[in-house]
Amino acid sequence: MASAPxxxxxxxxxxxxxxxLGRILLYAxxxxxxxxxLLPLLWMFVxxxxxxxxxxxxxxxxxxATFGNFSSILNNPSLPVVxxxxxSTLIATVFTAL
Length: 98
Hints:
single chain, mainly alpha, flat
């Protein structure tokens, strides 16, 4: 019994579902750019768990990681971070609904 030929779709004059090498290259490029754009978020998190004396160092791994920075910001009465977050969420929800 003969198998049916593989169907490819044409989009704007190009075939979709090209060669395996092309797909591997595409995923490699997408992975590179994904990691490139996530790098600042990772750096921000690593800096947030560093003790204050290490904030300006370029070390990726903090010597003494601490989550105390988060509690000091969230519990500081002069910085209503939770209120700011609620306000931002409310504004984003209302404008998205509109």
